[in-house]
Amino acid sequence: MRTVLNRLYSDYLMPSRLRHYEALLRQARQHGYRQTSVRAWLATLRGGRAGDGPVLVHRHDIDTDLPTARRMFALEQKHGVRASYYFRLSTLDFDLMRDIEDYGSEASYHYEEIATYAKQAHLKDAAQVRLHMGEIRDQFERNFRHIEQQLGIKMVTVASHGDFANRRLGMINHELLDDAALRARCGIDCESYDDELLSSFDIYISDRPHPEYFHPLPPQAALGKHRRICLLTHPSQWRTNWVDSSRHNLRRLVEAWRW
Description:
single chain, 49% helix, TIM Barrel, alpha/beta
């Protein structure tokens, strides 16, 4: 019951936390952190220019709630912050994505083809899903190239989405990118869960729903203690959107029923 109540509060009653996000951007700047995107940080690492200066890499997964994503982007523009935004097929907004790129941040793909295929084909066993990995990878490549074509910008990093189907399968979406040839064909330099990227951080922090908010600790508590921080955020954790929350919850119920 408590879990249900917390979910209802997060989706429909929670006051906006965007002022806390703006305060975080300001506090990180005051602590001397360079606030940048996944793509820019990767280029810095590979160019041997990481140095000893503190860095905060912002990664936004746009699972839902484009209006809040726009507000977060506006706050970052206000404070001169760069970030990475990863969009699902269901949240693609090419105008916003182009604005993000024009500003100097990163817009790319939040993919979920393994979960999508499993649900559509009614496959509930990971071994069965892996038998179709060729088809799944073909679908990913088609989607990736379509987004690039519409966006008009080369995407070099991507981030896998975690769907309820992945948890039931015990299978993560980025397994499909365990294929060097696919990465080479698509020109993908890095997946956001690659060891090369994750091992470059002293701490990786993700936002969580009420009442936890962050794991393993609030980013404010990490400032000044950890020099290389990656912060993963989702717009829906920062501001309620009744329409998007209801649409997302209904879609999930329907998908689970059909699966």
